[in-house]
Amino acid sequence: MGHSQAEKAESRERILAAASAQIRGQGLESLSVGKLMAEAGLTHGGFYGHFASRADLLAQALERALVDGEGGAKAANNAARTGGLARFVRSYLSRTHRDAPQSGCAISALACDVGRADDACREAMAAHIEGFIAGMTRSLGGDEAKGMAAVSAMVGALALSRVMPDPKRSDAILRAVREVVTGMAVRYAA
After folding, report:
1. How far is CA 60 from the centre of its chain?
2. Where along the chain do its domains lie?
3. Second-level CATH architecture of 5-65
4. What's the whole-model pTM score?
């Protein structure tokens, strides 16, 4: 007995959602097809009904992670219109975001992994980085250099804060970059 197209689409969504969270939380190489399929309640053999290969799954899971986590670029775009850039920066560079890589910005969680990945993965992430930079650039008065610097500082601070075993030092990194980037926004608004 075959599965309906709706059931197949639902299964594919479960697989991609689980894979997206897993790679954001544990990195690209953490992805095990067998474990993932079991987590999604499916058999390992059913994998090829959804994806051509593990590489195909990785590329699609990365894109899903980027889309799910691209709230940063959208928030930066909206901040330009609403004056809420400082609020966005505080949220992005927060303990909550730092402590939940599996549901946060995929750029900060996976940039180093993707830097060593294939061209398809790098191109997918590059497009999302460009969107984030464009949003920050608009929020900072159209100065692309400031937009690039702000995104780089924020992504880097979040990644570095996750490395630090001392919570006080980790918080200090977030706070320092939060103050610098928020200062950029205040100077623009003045």
Report:
1. 14
2. 5-65, 70-189
3. Orthogonal Bundle (1.10)
4. 0.84
